[in-house]
User: Which sequence fits this backbone?
């Protein structure tokens, strides 16, 4: 465990707890966390996860903007729901993108676990986009990401990060419950 991993873990815990509570303050912590994890994952040759962190910077900036304009009369961020047809399209898109990205990582890089890491990255992208759009379905994807990421990070010896994703799993279940109750 490095001090950088410890700091990223702390920022991650704060970030996700604030997301569950639909607090705008999650975004500064998210930006700090993803910046540190980009460095960590690059060093571990988890290239999909490293690139994912750069994407997270952009989508967190979008989310911050979108959430600031999407408050209910109570001041809370409104939660939305996807149509059934949109859920099917997101599932098909995630499957195709995971297969394509995993193939690229496998063929063109020396990535550790290109398919596993690539699938986590693609699901994370979809989950983050949906979360930035305030869709409660994002939590279902985050639960899948956490279930896949915990053993990957353990295999790579990133024990603190694996533990963080175990906590993220619990927070994702809490988020799913809270956001499902709050959906429009």
Assistant:
């Amino acid at each position: 465990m490095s001090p950088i991993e410890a700091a990223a873990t702390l920022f991650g815990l704060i970030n996700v707890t604030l997301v569950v509570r639909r607090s705008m303050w999650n975004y500064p912590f998210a930006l700090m966390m993803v910046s540190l994890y980009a460095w960590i994952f690059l060093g571990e040759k988890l290239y999909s996860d490293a690139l994912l962190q750069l994407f997270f910077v952009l989508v967190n900036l979008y989310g911050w903007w979108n959430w600031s304009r999407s408050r209910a009369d109570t001041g809370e961020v409104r939660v939305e729901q996807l149509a059934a047809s949109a859920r099917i399209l997101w599932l098909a898109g995630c499957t195709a993108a995971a297969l394509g990205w995993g193939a690229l990582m496998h063929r063109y890089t020396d990535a550790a676990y290109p398919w596993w890491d690539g699938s986590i990255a693609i699901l994370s992208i979809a989950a983050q986009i949906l979360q930035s759009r305030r869709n409660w379905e994002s939590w279902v994807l985050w639960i899948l990401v956490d279930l896949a990421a915990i053993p990957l990070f353990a295999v790579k010896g990133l024990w603190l990060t694996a533990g963080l994703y175990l906590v993220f799993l619990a927070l994702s279940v809490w988020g799913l419950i809270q956001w499902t109750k709050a959906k429009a």
Observations:
- The helical segments are 3-20, 26-43, 47-68, 84-108, 114-132, 138-155, 159-182.
